[in-house]
Amino acid sequence: MTGGARTEAAPAGAAAGQGRPRRALLLAAVMAAVTLAAWLLSAGLQRDPTAIRSPLLGRPAPDFALGTLEGDRTVRLGDLRGQVVVVNFWASWCAECRIEHPALSAAWDRFRDAGVVLVGVDFQDDHPSALAYLAGAGVGWPVVADPGSRTALAYGVYGIPETFVIGPDGRVTAKHVGPVTYDQLEREITRVLPGEPGRQPGAPAVGSR
Amino acid sequence: MSMADHAAASRPARAWARPAVGLAVLLLVALGALAAVAARGPAPASTPAERVHAIATGLRCPVCRDLSVADSPAPLAQQMRNQIAEGLAAGKSPEAIRREFVAAYGESVLLVPARRGVGLVAWLAPALLLAGGALAAVLAVRRWRARGAAPAVSSPSAAGASRADKVLLERALARFEEDPQ
Q1: If 0-12 CB within 10 Å is exposed, 13-18 middle and 19+ buried, where does residue A88 land?
Q2: Computed from CA positions of residues A102, A107, A110, A115, in that sequence, does the dihedral angle turn out positive or negative?
Q3: Is A156 close to B82, i.e. CB distance below 8 A?
Q4: Which of A143, A140, A142, A166 lies closest to A154, judged by CA?
Q5: Beta partners for A205?
Q6: Scanning every residue of chain B, which has its alpha carbon at the shortest distance from the alpha carbon of A172?
Q7: Contact call for residues B110 and B98 (beta carbons, < 8 A)
Q8: Which string of DSSP letters, residue by residue, matches B81-140?
Q9: DSSP character at residue B60
Q10: 91-150 in A: which are within 8 Å (CB) of B?
Q11: pTM greater than 0.80 (yes/no)
């Protein structure tokens, strides 16, 4: 009986010794999983869901040939190759577009003779309202209508105002969401404008909100 | 663990084994049916409107929050539906139409993740979790079985009994031998 007890005790002791590290391992795995889930959640919550990097950056800008609001001519992006093109999506109903209007005007005045073209694309607007806005605000640059929002969809517009800078090679070099400031426009334009004292054209940059 | 515990554990272990097999078979049949339905997918869209709807339900409306292009009343969503319809009429494949929107908006425009890159995680994770869970369940059942079968294999002596249990047992036996009432 006692001999039997001694031999039986050995496997029981071994099982108990084995059980403890295994339980510790399981606990560590559960803790690691919980930590990972918490980290992912916190990382996800801290991210701005509206800040989505445009896939167009560094890519050839989608071409467009759109008639101006006045209907006097057609602006074709392909014809503007070799120049820096600033494409600004706006609308007469858009309050933030009014905020950024002075910045666009200042940039137009400063760069219009330096090989920079500013093109306004009217987004989901009422034609008479848009024309009234142009007359009232004093818009010197071409503003085109975008029937069916084709160009806006091709540029991945989420909400206006949105401003794209296209380099002389026809590639999108910057995208700005929200009202743009003159300093931001100047920085992004001089970055890609040939012969301008600015940063060298290089990696595309994302505009901040 | 005492002998009584082992006996109690072994009997229910065998008792629930048969219903568990039945349950497993039932689960397998249900999963098989689900897989068959999932493999077939929704009924193929036949009319042009249905084909547009099928693509639009998989695209996020860019100007909304968590609405598909099919469900959104926003003008931009309407224009996206028009563009899908025109693309289909021009003979483009649904995949080509989706790629155009992804080129403009990025992968985030897709409500159904792509079956490649990071999107693959969303497709594989449920299957991997299910497989992991099944493996864990099988291992657990095996361990319970082994634990239940252990006293049957070992001698009917004080298997796994603690020293205190044995002392108590021996004392009780001694008392019983002295005075078998």
Answers
A1: buried
A2: negative
A3: no
A4: A166
A5: A174
A6: B104
A7: yes
A8: HHHHHHHHHTT--HHHHHHHHHHHH-GGGBSS--SSTTHHHHHHHHHHHHHHHHHHHHHH
A9: B
A10: 124, 148-150
A11: no
pLDDT score recorded for residue B151: 58
| CB spacing of B75 vs A12 below 8 angstroms | no
Q: Which residue on chain B is closest to A4 by alpha carbon?
A: B157
Contact between chains at B106 and A156 (C-beta distance less than 8 A) = yes
CA B77 to chain centre: 35
Interface of B with A in 2-61 (CB under 8 A): none
Residue B59 is classified by DSSP as: B
Backbone torsions φ then ψ of A82, nearest 5 degrees: 95, -15
Compute the distance between CA of residue B68 and CA of residue B75 in angstroms, rounded to an integer.
13
Interface predicted TM-score of the whole assembly (ipTM), two decimals: 0.71
Indicate the range of B5-9, B27-31, B130-134 predicted with least confidence.
B5-9
Instruction: Give the pLDDT confidence score for residue B105 in this predicted structure.
Output: 92
Give me the mean pLDDT over the A11-16 stretch.
44
Listed in sequence order, the residues at least 6 apart from A90 whose beta carbon sits closer than 8 Å to its beta carbon are A97, A120, A121, A122, A123, A160, A161
Rounded CA-CA distance B71/B58 in Å is 10
pLDDT of amino acid B180: 60
